[in-house]
Design a protein that fits this description.
Radius of gyration of chain B: 13 Å
Number of helices of chain B: 0
Distance between the termini of chain A: 38 Å
Structural class of chain B: mainly beta
Number of strands of chain B: 10
Shape of chain A: globular
Structural class of chain A: mainly beta
Distance between the termini of chain B: 33 Å
Largest sheet of chain B: 6 strands, mixed
Radius of gyration of chain A: 14 Å
Oligomer: heterodimer
Chain lengths: ~120, ~120
């Protein structure tokens, strides 16, 4: 079974609208961390936001917020007031606590977001 | 610069040749990872180094792939007898702390390998 599932291969969104990128995960480890990365066409992987499994509140970083629903094993990324520069691939990733980071992050297949003017 | 540095940025090689990819992590980062990203795909874990400990090689796809990390810093990923299916972007990442979940991986810009 996939550990990280991103069900939206591609999305088109009008500029200034809010965007929600879906991510569900699968783990039996009670301790884990969830990450979102942005990969523009230039190729670099840019860390956006982190949510820990024990965090009581949803993480926020500027225009990015993470809608964390633990019971549903869901960690959707919300981008408010989208901009043309938000066009990129977005990857959801997870690190499970039991291996102490030994596997790094497990990544989903990504969502290709295109912001239209 | 202060980020993860990878070289070369692009590499074109003939099938059957060996290639070496280099990664210089962020200074002070003890954990180093290699990932592979095929066209339009997510990231595939290859290998993990923590300081001077023996690496976790569980993600290496075949025995043609090997990696080393000298002095707990610079790492080299070697692919022997390259095949066309090895064509991909090879990404290196480092992080500061392996014992907690919240240390993000910081990635280099990758090496785009094309095997002809």
């Amino acid at each position: 079974a996939q550990k990280i599932t991103q069900t939206q291969p591609g999305m088109f969104v009008q500029e200034k609208e809010a965007v929600t990128l879906d991510c569900t995960y699968d783990t039996s480890d009670p301790s884990y961390g969830l990450f979102w990365y942005k990969q523009p066409s230039s190729g670099e992987m840019i860390f956006l936001i982190y949510q820990g499994s024990y965090d009581q509140q949803n993480a926020t970083e500027g225009r990015y917020s993470l809608n964390f629903q633990k019971a549903r094993k869901s960690a959707n990324l919300v981008i408010s007031a989208s901009q043309l520069g938000d066009s990129a691939m977005y990857f959801c990733a997870m690190r499970e606590g039991s291996r102490g980071g030994a596997d790094g992050l497990t990544f989903g297949k990504g969502t290709h977001l295109i912001i239209q003017p | 610069g202060a980020g993860v540095s990878q070289s070369p940025s692009n590499k074109v090689t003939e099938k059957g040749k060996d290639v070496e990819l280099r990664c210089d992590p962020i200074s002070g980062h003890t954990a180093l990872y290699w990932y592979r990203q095929s066209l339009g795909q997510g990231l595939e874990f290859l290998i993990y180094f923590q300081g001077n400990s023996a690496p976790d090689k569980s993600g290496l796809p075949s025995d043609r792939f090997s990696a080393e990390r000298t002095g707990g810093s610079v790492s080299t990923l070697t692919i022997q007898r390259t095949q066309q299916e090895d064509s991909a972007v090879y990404l290196c990442a480092s992080s500061s702390d392996r014992t907690t979940n919240n240390s993000p991986l910081h990635f280099g810009n990758g090496t785009r390998l094309t095997v002809t």
